[in-house]
Specification:
181 residues; Jelly Rolls; six-stranded antiparallel beta sheet; globular
Length: 181
């Protein structure tokens, strides 16, 4: 596995070694000892799997009282995945990083606790899987608007079309008003 720190160094892109031939492929998708060495001492307690159609944007989500770290990957299709630093004492506070994750590149993104997370579906549909460091707590969920002007995330949207978001995400807060770590 290759671990690459992005412009926000706590956010790490993981690229597995893939061994393939005419029969298919094999790859190791996770090894606790390597993950701890490159990303930190975290334990995963919950795995989630979602499916979304083209043009869907989910996020920017986070939990404040019980923040979740997330190791995310795409097993079908392609997404543009984003992490926003909400740690007020961080030199990268209020900055974002993004990565294209797909079934073809098989890359994963480590989004540590203290970050908001979102993804936008580029392909016809995408299956998105992620491991979490804490359990989902429905009373502790927050959302920042995907189109917040302060963050100015450069989403790869289809020209002239806004993404499809849930009713809850459409009511997300502006970055300036959202709780921060």
């Amino acid at each position: 596995m290759e671990y690459t720190r992005l412009d926000i160094p706590e956010v790490v892109l993981l690229a597995p070694r893939v061994f393939g031939d005419e029969r298919g492929f094999f790859m190791e998708s996770f090894r606790q000892s390597e993950f701890e060495e490159h990303c930190g001492d975290y334990t995963f307690v919950q795995d989630n799997h979602s499916k979304s159609k083209h043009g869907i944007l989910r996020g920017l989500h986070y939990q404040f009282e019980k923040p979740q770290g997330k190791l995310v990957r795409v097993t079908r299709g392609e997404v543009f995945d984003v992490a926003v630093d909400l740690r007020q004492e961080s030199p990268t506070f209020g900055q974002w990083v993004g990565a294209h994750l797909s079934e073809d590149n098989k890359q994963m993104l480590w989004v540590p606790p203290g970050f908001a997370h979102a993804f936008y579906v580029i392909s016809d549909e995408a299956e998105f899987q992620y491991k979490c460091t804490d359990y989902y707590n429905p009373g502790d969920e927050y959302c920042i608007r995907w189109d917040d002007a302060t963050l100015a995330i450069e989403w790869p949207l289809v020209e002239g079309r806004e993404p499809s978001v849930s009713e809850k995400d459409a009511k997300g807060q502006q970055f300036a008003d959202a709780p921060k770590f």
